[in-house]
Amino acid sequence: MDAVKARRLLGIVSALLLAVHAAWAARLCGPIVRLIRALDGSLELASVEAERLVAQADEGLQLLSWLTLATAAAFVPFFTQVYAASSPQRPPSWAVWSWFVPIANFFLPYRLAQEVEVHHGRSAQGWMLFGWWTLWLVSRFTQLGAWVQGNEPGALHYDVASLVTSVPSAALAAALCLRWLSPKKRGE
Fold this sequence. Notes:
By secondary structure, the protein is mainly α. Helices cover 76% and strands 0% of the residues. The protein has helices at 3-40, 47-84, 94-97, 108-119, 127-149, 154-181. Helix 1 runs antiparallel to helix 2 (47-84) and helix 5 runs antiparallel to helix 6. It is elongated and about 60 Å long. The two termini are 23 Å apart.
């Protein structure tokens, strides 16, 4: 399989996984919000129902974690190939490690994606790219908040915030994957 076909396949797989991620995150919001309401006392639940909601939320979040890993396993190589094909200003390996280096992973993947957008004849300041990155960062920070809270009831609020922001973030990332598969706008 040549490089263009491999990149196309990775892009389609990434977009599909991101769409599934968005749908699954949206689906999880309901049970977690019901659980929060039950813990806050604004919703009466039988103990069996509460236990079922806890199990459903726990299993759903675990599945979402695995889905996130699978998505990253497809998206990072795709992003690296797209970046390498876009006449990069930096070595293509930056597109891989930029996601994993602390502090740099808050801004460097966005900067590299801006270069890809410019290569495709689009504005580096476009709303789709900015929206994706902003929501992705908010989702990561709220996820961190849930982790810091541990098993405290407040952690569920962070989980919901993370899920709510990851839905449009994943949808925008899927749209970007498909957009990066299309030919350049200008100067083809």
